[in-house]
Amino acid sequence: MENCLFCSIVEGKIPSKKVYEDDTFLVFHDIQPAAPVHVLIIPKKHIATMNEVGSEDYAMIGELHRVAQQVAKELGVAETGYRLINNCGPDSGQAVYHIHYHLLGGAKLGLLAQTSDSHAN
Questions:
Q1: What's the domain count of the chain?
Q2: CA-to-CA distance for 8 and 24, rounded, in angstroms?
Q3: C-alpha–C-alpha distance, residues 119 and 121, integer Å
Q4: Minimal CB count within 10 Å: which of 38, 39, 66, 111?
Q5: What is the pLDDT of residues 31-67, one digit of tens each?
Q6: What is the CATH number of the domain that holds 62?
Q7: CA neighbours closer than 13 Å in the CB half-sphere of residue 8
Q8: Active site residue: 29, 100, 102, 119, which one?
Q9: Alpha-carbon radius of gyration of the chain
Q10: What secondary structure, in 3-state letters, does 39-52 show?
């Protein structure tokens, strides 16, 4: 999708600090972390929001959760706990309209961690 920040990161036009990559997903560090561990998990396929996920994408969304488990283990937060957040739409704070999840951990998290997409990259 033209002018999509995350599509540009997937295409390598914008650099990112990658944690994990395969044919379907990219995981990279948030440039303004809201926790000691704060990475973004995105599918390489452009889907604007969770509301646009179709039945053909359900298996991919399930696989995204497997990737989240793996990355949490690799980043050392699986045992102590982590938060997995998807913002959907403007009232949620979604600013980058490419479906993604924030994985946060590495500390005891408060009730709400700031995960506005304005600092994603």
A1: 1
A2: 15
A3: 7
A4: 111
A5: 999 999 999 999 999 999 999 999 999 999 999 999 9
A6: 3.30.428.10
A7: 11
A8: 100
A9: 13
A10: EEEEECCCCCCHHH
